[in-house]
Amino acid sequence: MLRINASKLAATTAVGAMLMALAACGGGGSTGQDAASPEASAASSAPAGPKVGLAYDIGGRGDQSFNDAAAAGLDKANTELKLGEIKELEAGAGETGAQKEQRLRLLAQSGFNPVIAVGFAYSEAIKKVATEFPDTKFAIIDDAAEGPNISNLLFAENEGSFLVGAAAALKSKKDHIGFVGGVQVPLIKKFEVGYTKGAQAVKPDIKIDVKYLTQPPDFGGFNDPAKGKTAAEGMFDSGADVVYQAAGGSGGGVFEAAKAAGAMAIGVDSDQALTADEAVRGVIMTSMLKKVDVAVFDFLKSYTDNTVKAGQTIYDLKAGGVDFSTTGGQVDDIKNKLDEYKQDIVSGKITVPAE
């Protein structure tokens, strides 16, 4: 398998240079064998799997959160479905919509099919590029952009956040908790609303501090650990003892602040007690699991099965698309209560608002 990670490419990289990079790394996966050997000849005659293009949001593979969850689904698909060539490209901080279009267009022009866009920031770009390449199958995570060749992979983040909100309230000794959002957009508001409703279900009068790191069109709040740390420090200083972050790469700063304050934090998207820096994993009492990896794998499997469908697939609590983690055992004593809330949501006894 060949892989490009363009996390170091500047957002202003010229179209020609990116095309040259794609061309230079083109072709099927390399085995390291001599091209003239019988083994290489046999491999070259074997049917190749689909060429998959994946465009990350800011932070890319290695963000220990949302993008890494997508990468995990891609890696699983490559192992189990025998994909062909893979290209991974990454958004740069402060880039324009035209640059996002360019990234998706480069993948499609280079023959990658399907193409997956990770994050709602690709909404306008994917709508435009998908019309230019009607024979290419596109998927976008966290956005409902419509098109006959666009699949929407959506999640009930509010339901998963309800569960970790309940956990925060059950664990808080000060009846004071916090929420740090990366960027104040409707998607992240779903996390905040679910978290608030879950905490209030346990303690109606609990105090909840809320802070967003940036406002659109500045999406740097998803990759600024220093801002995340400062926001969380303010909450801990004011008396909060649990803070939930839905802030992508900025979440590492929240964990650092929790460790320094002797407090607790809640991770997001991935089980961050497994993925965060080892120095801070101990403060992560639970994480809201958003199974982006499952959605990416499902989409790629549907492509290889020739069963791709355009439109929305919603991964909610009932479908197992969201949940809470138990790594480290810090919520073992309240797990039964959280499971009760989970069942009440699945059965419809509790309806968690999204806004």
TrEMBL record:
Boundaries of every ABC transporter substrate-binding protein PnrA-like domain copy: 57-354
Signal peptide positions (record): 1-23
Principal location class: membrane
Keywords of this entry: Cell membrane, Lipoprotein, Membrane, Signal
InterPro entries given in the database record: BMP_lipoprotein (IPR050957), Peripla_BP_I (IPR028082), PnrA-like (IPR003760)
PROSITE patterns attached to this UniProt entry: PROKAR_LIPOPROTEIN
Superkingdom of origin: Bacteria
Keyword Cell membrane set for record: yes
Pfam families, per database record: Bmp
Annotated family: Belongs to the BMP lipoprotein family.
PANTHER family found in the cross-reference section: ABC TRANSPORTER GUANOSINE-BINDING PROTEIN NUPN, TRANSCRIPTIONAL ACTIVATOR PROTEIN MED
Protein name: BMP family protein
Organism: Sphaerisporangium aureirubrum
